[in-house]
C-alpha cells in the first residue's frame, strides 16, 4: 500500500509503516515574508551582540565580587586576630 503523508514543507512516500523516500518541497516566499525574515535576522544579530555584552559585564562583576569577598575576609581576619 502506497500512501503520501504531507506536512508543511515535507512529504514522504509511505509503504506500510516505513518511510521509503523524503523530498524537500520549498515554496516561494512572498515579498512580505522576505522583508520579515531580514528584519528578524537583524534583530537576532542585535540580540546576540547584547547577550555577549551582558556576558562580559556579568564576568566582570563576578570577578569584582570575588575580589571584594577576599578583601573583606582579610579585613575581618585582621580585625579578629590582628
Outline the secondary-structure elements.
Blueprint (H helix, E strand, L loop, with lengths): L1 E5 L3 E6 L2 E7 L6 H51 L1
Antiparallel strand pairs: 1-2, 2-3
3D architecture notes:
The chain is of the alpha+beta class. The chain has one domain. The chain is built from one helix and three strands. The longest helix is centred in the last third of the chain and has 51 residues, at about 30-80. The chain starts with a strand and ends with a helix. Residues about 1-10 have low confidence and may be disordered.
Q: What is the count of β-strands?
A: 3
Proportion of residues in extended strands = 15-25%
**How would you classify the quaternary structure?**
single chain
Span between termini: 89 Å
Structurally, how many domains make up the residues?
Answer: 1
SSE ordering:
EEEH
**Number of continuous helical runs:** 1
Category by helix and strand content: alpha+beta
Q: Segments where pLDDT lies below 50 for 5+ residues?
A: 1-10
Helical residue percent? 55-70%
Order of strands in the sheet with most strands: 1-2-3
The major sheet is characterized as: 3 strands, antiparallel
What sort of overall outline do the alpha carbons produce when their principal axes are compared?
A: rod-shaped
Mean pLDDT: 81
The value of Rg in angstroms is 29 Å
Amino acid at each position: 500500500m502506497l500512501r503520501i503523508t504531507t506536512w508543511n514543507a515535507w512529504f514522504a512516500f509511505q509503504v506500510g509503516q516505513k518511510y521509503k523516500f523524503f523530498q524537500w518541497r520549498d515554496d516561494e516566499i512572498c515579498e512580505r515574508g522576505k522583508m520579515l525574515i531580514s528584519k528578524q535576522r537583524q534583530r537576532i544579530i542585535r540580540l546576540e551582540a547584547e547577550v555577549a555584552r551582558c556576558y562580559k559585564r556579568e564576568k566582570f562583576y563576578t570577578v569584582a565580587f570575588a575580589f571584594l569577598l577576599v578583601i573583606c575576609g582579610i579585613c575581618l581576619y585582621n580585625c579578629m586576630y590582628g
